[in-house]
Amino acid sequence: MECSWDKYLEVQEELDKLPAEDVLAVFGYDMVDILRDCDDNILDMLLEEIRERETSKRSNTVMTNNVELISITPNYKKVLTGAISQCYQTDKHSDKALEHCIKAGHLSVLEHCYATFKVKCSIQTLLQLTRHRHLSFTVQSSRGTFLDEYLQTGDETIDAMIRESAKAYNGLAIGGEWDFEQVALLAPKAMMYNLYVTGNFRAWFEYLPKRMCERTQKEHRELAEEIQKILAENAPAVFDRNMMSCDICKERSCSFHG
């Protein structure tokens, strides 16, 4: 007994919301033949599974950045104040001296301490992140791995187009006829990458105000805000402060002053 046309269209509509790998998980490669041979009761069961997968996928889709602190110089204040004491060959390790150096812009002393983060972000944000040349990166390979998550913006039109682009990538990547290196050329900028990023304290100190600015793309701004929050908790003498300096900012195209 074949299914009704309305039920068939309902299933197709739900399938359009899923990435290719989930469609294959439900139907294999014979989706059209299976749908034609199913009655409405079986299609109802398939619809339930499809919607469960859609809900699960939505909950796993990264809406904001994932940031995890991997390592940070543990005795950072001792290291920094010790470095400062070398300038005038004194044994005094003063927190006040550290604060003076930061406020005066003598930031070279911050280069003696480091922090490493594990980050998950879109290709779009990764391209911006790697512009900060004093940070070091080790990034997930698109030649040897399957990219299985993508950013959603909250804009229905943009997100629908991202899903379509991701389907094209997923379809070829899962099919096995092409290798990941070739298929990666189809990956939309919304696809999520995992990476390690390391910087000395000066690199992070100079990075944060640039990317916490209201002019920054939302995903990247949230990433910078989370990094600043973690650094402020673990190295408060350096990072637990207002990192923004809108009153002295020289960005003339900015409309966020005040």
Automatic annotation (TrEMBL):
Query: Can you say what this protein is called?
Result: Thymidylate synthase, flavin-dependent
Give the GO molecular function terms.
flavin adenine dinucleotide binding; NADPH binding; thymidylate synthase (FAD) activity; thymidylate synthase activity
* Cross-referenced InterPro entries: Thymidylate_synthase_ThyX, Thymidylate_synthase_ThyX_sf
The species this protein was found in: Veillonella seminalis ACS-216-V-Col6b
Gene3D superfamilies according to UniProt: 3.30.1360.170
Q: Which CDD domains match?
A: ThyX (cd20175)
Q: What is the lineage of its organism?
A: Bacteria, Bacillati, Bacillota, Negativicutes, Veillonellales
Biological process terms from the Gene Ontology for this record are: dTMP biosynthetic process
Superkingdom assignment: Bacteria
